[in-house]
Structure formats: C-alpha cells, structure tokens
Design goal:
The protein is 32% helix and 26% strand. It has 146 residues and is of the alpha+beta class. Helix 1 packs across helix 2 and helix 1 runs parallel beside helix 3. The model is unreliable at 1-6 and 140-146 (pLDDT under 50).
Length: 146
C-alpha cells in the first residue's frame, strides 16, 4: 500500500513542478516574474498572474491573468480590495496553450479588440487526472524556481 501512496505523491509532485514551469513561462512571456504568480495544484488546479497594467475602461482595477484546468486562461480585473477577480474574456481553445498564444490574447484584450476571446467560460476538460494534464504541458518549458 505504501508504494501506491508514494507513487501518488510523485505524480502530484511532477504535476506541480510541470505546472509551475508552465505558469512561469507564461509569466515571463507577459513580462512579469514569479513573484506576481500564485499557483494551486489541487483539484481543480488554478493559477493567477498579477499584471502591472490597467485597462482604460476600468481605470481603478488591476488586470490579471487567471487559469484553471477546466476553463483555461482568462483575462480578469481585480476588485477594489484585490480579493476577487471578474473575468472579462476567456482565451478558449486549449487548456495549456503555448505562452505566445496567451501573450496575443492579452494584447487583444488590452487593445479592446471585440474578438479577444469569449465571454462564456469554455469547458476544455474535467478537473482532475493531473497525470494526463501534465502530459499536455507544452514541451521545452523549464520549471520555475521559487
């Protein structure tokens, strides 16, 4: 029985490390460091990247990228307290797209492009099965430190 427990821990460790590397790659691609990121490798797995930008239509709110394993990436604005985020648009497509696709999506949101993503949350996969999700992480993205 201990072999199963150890195997499960190894899978989750590998998943968290791979997801951490992917989120770090996205953060670097949008011009911020790991200190701007939070990660929850539970179920559902989720990530948050705080950005140093504001949109002209929401001048009192910081912009952020949020991700979860069901809906993928979304652009969101933080509320006045910084405790909650309101999604403005979902990228859609893949749950773990190449970081360059996230950069293009963010640029379209910042440019107020009406075709930047979708307002409806896409269901890209069911939460869980982190071993399968780990296999979807784009290749060549080293794990971030921190």
């Amino acid at each position: 029985m201990s072999i199963l427990i150890d195997f499960g821990r190894d899978t989750e460790f590998s998943f968290e490390r791979g997801l951490r590397g992917y989120v770090g790659a996205v953060a670097r691609a949008v011009g911020v460091g790991w200190e701007s990121c939070t990660l929850d490798a539970g179920t559902p797995a989720a990530a948050y990247i705080a950005l140093d930008w504001r949109l002209s239509r929401f001048p009192g709110h910081d912009l952020a990228l949020v991700w979860d394993e069901v809906h993928g990436w979304a652009a969101a604005i933080e509320d006045a307290t910084g405790e909650a985020a309101t999604v403005l648009a979902y990228l859609g497509g893949e749950v773990l797209p190449d970081p360059r696709a996230v950069v293009r999506f963010l640029a379209a949101v910042r440019a107020d492009d009406p075709d930047a993503g979708t307002l409806e949350a896409p269901v890209l996969r069911e939460a869980g099965d982190h071993e399968r999700l780990l296999a979807m992480v784009p290749e060549g993205k080293p794990a971030a430190r921190g």
